[in-house]
Write a structure and sequence with these properties.
CATH architecture: 3-Layer(aba) Sandwich
Number of strands: 7
CATH superfamily: P-loop containing nucleotide triphosphate hydrolases
Structural class: alpha/beta
Helix content: 25-40%
Shape: globular
Strand content: 15-25%
Distance between the termini: 24 Å
Length: about 190
């Protein structure tokens, strides 16, 4: 399976273009928006601004020779936005669950986020990826890599650690999930 993470202008998209919707969830301040921004633009300065509600970004990726529209819903992690999130899961083919490796509470809350996904969607575990962000802050780390990997394994999730600051595994995190979704996207009539 080939995957080229190239952005395409909207004019390359038509009604026959395969489509996928991804939702990014996790506590406020874990770096969801920064991960997405860095994925879309490697030269991004990542000036952090808290997401209010939901920010929807669209990218076009070449997957197995087909221009594929990927719509990423970047959600605000604050408790007050939780009622809005139920509608975000509708039609989603994949979920990126992000926690902060330097914030133990954000890791503990992953169970709650996954419960919410199960409540509002019918996604299989292989359509979800757990991302431990801020891997560059080793001295401040509160969540051990082995513990996070074990949790992910028990939940049937893929796990990867990323760093927006030094650009570690940003592309890989999205690539893993998009490759799993490719079979669904390219073989089914998926509309958003």
């Amino acid at each position: 399976m080939s995957f080229k993470g190239t952005l395409r202008p909207k004019s390359h998209c038509d009604n026959e273009t395969p489509r996928a919707k991804l939702v990014m969830i996790g506590d406020s301040g874990v770096g969801k928006s920064c991960l997405l921004e860095r994925f879309m633009d490697k030269n991004s300065t990542n000036n952090w601004i808290s997401t209010i509600g939901v920010d929807i970004r669209t990218i076009y990726l070449d997957i197995d020779g087909k221009n594929t529209k990927i719509q990423v819903w970047d959600t605000g992690g604050q408790q007050r936005y939780r009622p809005v999130l139920a509608s975000c899961y509708r039609g989603a083919l994949g979920v990126v669950v992000v926690f902060d490796l330097t914030n133990r509470t954000s890791f503990s809350n992953v169970k709650q986020w996954l419960h919410e996904v199960e409540e509002f969607s019918a996604l299989d575990a292989d359509k979800k990826i757990l991302v431990g962000n801020k891997a560059d802050l080793q001295a401040d780390r509160k969540v051990d890599q082995g513990e996070a990997q074990q949790f992910a394994q028990e939940a049937g999730l893929q796990y990867i650690e990323t760093s927006v600051l030094d650009q570690t595994n940003i592309q890989e995190a999205f690539t893993r999930l998009v490759e799993v979704l490719t079979v669904v996207v390219l073989c089914c009539d998926v509309s958003m």
